[in-house]
Fold this protein.
Amino acid sequence: MSIVVSNITKEYGKQKALNKVSLSVSSGEIVGFLGPNGAGKSTLMKIICCYLPPSEGTIKVCGLDVMEQSMEVRKKVGYLPEHNPLYLDMYVKEYLEFVGRFYHLQNLNKRVAEMVEMTGLTVEQNKKIGQLSKGYRQRVGLAQAIIHDPQVLILDEPTTGLDPNQLSEIRALIKELGKNKTVMLSTHIMQEVEAICERAIIINKGEIVADNSISDMVKKGETLEKVFQELTKAVK
Ligand SMILES: Nc1ncnc2c1ncn2[C@@H]1O[C@H](COP(=O)(O)OP(=O)(O)OP(=O)(O)O)[C@@H](O)[C@H]1O
Ligand SMILES: [Mg+2]
C-alpha cells in the first residue's frame, strides 16, 4: 500500500473537519477524491503531505509514518496544493531550480529541462511566473510536484480554471504520470474522475461515504454526479 490513512480526526478549534477517516491507496492507483465544499478534502491531503498534524490517528506513506518520519515522507510525496501558490516574481526555471535544491537533486539543470519538456512549458520557460496564464502556472505547479520523482502524487484540484484544451492536456499528463506513480486527486468535475480515475472516494462532512471502483459505484442508467448528489445531499 502506498497510502494508509487510519482513523484520522482533525479538529480546528471546536470544529471537527475530519472524523475517524480511514482509507488506503495501492501503488499505481489513480484515485479521485470527491466531496462538497468544506467536506475535508484539502485538510486530509495536507495531513498526508505533512503540512498539518492530525488531532488523532496515523497515516503511512510508502510504509513511513507522516508524524514520526516526516522528512522521509516528504521525499516520497509530490504535492500540488489547492490554489497552486507560486512565487510570481521568480522565473519558471529559477523557481524549479529553487525547488530542486530543497531535494538536493543531482544534475539540477538537466532535471529542470526534463520537467519543462514533460509539462509542456518549453515556449514559456523564460518568463516570470507572474506573466504566465493560469494553465501554464498550473503546469509549473505540476512540475514542482514531480521534480524529485516522487512515488506518490497528491493533487488538490489540479485542473480548476483551465480552458478545455489545457484541461485535456493536463488530464493526459496526470494519466501518464499515474502509469508509474500513485495519484490521489481532488476535483469537483465528475467527468474528470471518470476520465482519469479507476476508483473514487467520496467524503462528506469529514466522513467517508463511498469508496469503490467507479464502475461499481455507478449502476446502470445512473451517473457519478447523481451518486455524488445522493450521498452528499444536506439532511434538513
Ligand atoms: N486552517 C483552518 N482553520 C479553521 N478551519 C479550517 C481551516 N482549514 C479548513 N478549515 C475548515 O475545515 C473544513 C474542511 O475544509 P477543507 O478545506 O478541508 O474542505 P475541502 O473539502 O477541501 O473544500 P473545498 O471543496 O471547498 O476545497 C471547512 O469547514 C473549513 O472551513
Ligand atoms: Mg479544498
Notes: Strands lie at 3-12, 15-25, 30-34, 56-61, 64-65, 77-80, 152-156, 182-186, 199-204, 207-213. Residues 3-39+53-232 form a domain with the Rossmann fold fold (CATH 3.40.50.300). Residues 111 and 147 are 7 Å apart (CA to CA). The chain has one domain: 3-39+53-232.
